[in-house]
Amino acid sequence: MTxxxxxxxxxxxxxxxxxxxxxxxxxxxxxxxxxxxPAPVPTEGTFPGNSPEVRLLVMGDSTVxxxxxxxxxxTLAFNIAKAVNDETGWPVSWRAxxxxxxxxxxxxxxxxxxxxxxxxxxxxxxxxxxxMKNFHMVRRxxxxxxxxxxxxxxxxxxxRIVWCPIPDMRQCPALPTTLGRILAAxxxxxxxxxxxxxxxxxxxxxxxxxxxxxxxxxxxxxHPNGEGYRVWGQHFARxxxxxxxxxDSLPDEVTPLxxxx
Length: 261
What we know:
By secondary structure, the chain is of the alpha/beta class.
């Protein structure tokens, strides 16, 4: 395991040197990939239990907007809430607030201000993929993601904020091998800055979602499918509530971001 706090300089140099390849392969991919729409499913729900209620806000990009899904049971927010309920037996009320193609600045400017003011106990945050995919510079992500965390902390001061970094883009079946490597390099840079911002601004960062096979992706080969989101939900839940017998971590004791070699 290698700490991602300080990615090697060669990572940034490689990604920018390969920008012409990224642009060419990215345009070709956009022309042929199927553009999936958000599912017309409920954006909130509850699970019963016998304890103080977990009030969960799931906020993010297309992963939260249920792009490519057909049933509520396949969506990310539902599966995070279900995993928390299954693990603890606690009642969970959940709400999904996502935007297709949303970046960190989109969440800050257009989603956070319009989420109703409630006493959320936990916020699961899935964002960064579009900042990476759009080749946003790291200093821009630092500004946008850092401001997003500030806005969430100000608007929902009692909530435990948990951010899941970008998964390994080389696993996406839709991406050509070289494009996957380029985006994986950009993701490493974005993830490292995201981990730093979480540490500085009172949020928790999870490990990246473990690699998944081709059967965990939607038909576009880019977004997860229902099985993929069940894995994501269980993964998120580990940081929302610690596994039985393990000590809890406070927001100022942020889990170090790690990656496999």
